[in-house]
């Protein structure tokens, strides 16, 4: 992973932005880290293993299943980005408030103060 993300400076923003976004959702919904772990380490590897097994059984079947999965992924990304699905999960106001809280926590850490926590 470091050979992909570290050499080009602009590429370093991708994992940092993803981590920030995951932290934002985790701060709003306590179940998000558990869902992330289950998806990243159980569901996705299982799906990829299944597609690989289908390719072993039939290349045509594997291509069809792979195209269906890619279409589903594309539809989800389109809904999430273009149709505002991300704002149905977490409103724009909540996102901005989370960003402000993160920036304040960063300033507090730089200044040496203990971060403010809210329950």
If you had to describe this structure to a student in words, what would you say it looks like?
- With 119 residues, the chain is mainly α.
- It has helices at residues 2-5, 13-28, 32-57, 59-81, 85-89, 92-111.
- The two termini are 35 Å apart.
- The relative contact order is 0.07.
| Contiguous helical run count | 6
Compute the gyration radius: what is it? 19 Å
β-strand amount: under 5%
The whole-number mean of residue pLDDT values reads 88
Instruction: Output the structural class.
Output: mainly alpha
Distance between the termini: 35 Å
| Beta strand count | 0
Write the topology of this structure.
Layout: H1 2-5, H2 13-28, H3 32-57, H4 59-81, H5 85-89, H6 92-111
Helix pairs in contact: 3-4
Keywords:
single chain, 119 residues, 6 helices, 79% helix
Summarize the structure.
With 119 residues, the chain is an all-alpha fold.
């Amino acid at each position: 992973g470091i050979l992909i993300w570290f050499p080009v400076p602009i590429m370093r923003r991708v994992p940092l932005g993803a981590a920030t976004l995951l932290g934002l959702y985790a701060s709003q919904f306590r179940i998000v880290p558990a869902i992330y772990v289950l998806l990243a380490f159980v569901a996705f590897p299982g799906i990829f293993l299944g597609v690989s097994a289908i390719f072993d059984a039939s290349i045509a079947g594997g291509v069809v299943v792979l195209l269906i999965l890619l279409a589903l992924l594309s539809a989800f990304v389109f809904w999430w980005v273009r149709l505002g699905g991300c704002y149905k999960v977490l409103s724009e106001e909540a996102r901005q408030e989370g960003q402000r809280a993160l920036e304040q926590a960063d300033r507090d850490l730089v200044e040496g103060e203990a971060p403010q926590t809210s329950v």
